[in-house]
Design brief:
This protein is of the alpha+beta class and 106 residues long. It has 3 helices and 6 strands, in the order αββαββββα. It has helices at 4-15, 48-58, 92-105, and strands at residues 38-41, 44-47, 68-69, 76-77, 82-85, 88-91. The radius of gyration is 20 Å and the shape is elongated.
Length: 106
């Protein structure tokens, strides 16, 4: 005999496509189970291990001589990737996230 929660999940999967498949890392294929943490993006997941690997690959990069610190993410960025508004330095990455959040809030 099948459980009610299983039946409810199958019914809900008919309406919510995300419930039809198990979330897994798009990079290595690890499924969300047994302590695996996934970070969700638009139609993609990355596991904690792949996020750490990506961070290690980028870490050796040295900031440019003209680097400016973004007031939001605190990362040193090349001067061409940072703008200042009223004395507040904001990098292009943070500005893009802010624009996305404000657009979604509207």
């Amino acid at each position: 005999m099948r459980s009610r929660s299983g039946m409810a999940r199958r019914i809900a999967a008919g309406f919510l496509p995300a419930l039809r498949r198990i979330a897994q890392c798009r990079s290595c294929g690890r499924a969300k189970a047994g302590g695996v943490h996934l970070v969700a993006g638009p139609n993609v997941y990355l596991c904690d291990r792949c996020v750490q690997l990506a961070a290690r690959q980028l870490a050796p990069r040295r900031p440019a001589a003209d680097a400016v610190q973004c007031r939001f993410c605190r990362q040193l960025r090349a001067e061409v990737d940072v703008t200042a508004v009223g004395g507040v330095a904001v990098c292009a990455d943070c500005l893009g996230l802010m624009e996305t959040m404000l657009a979604e809030a509207s």
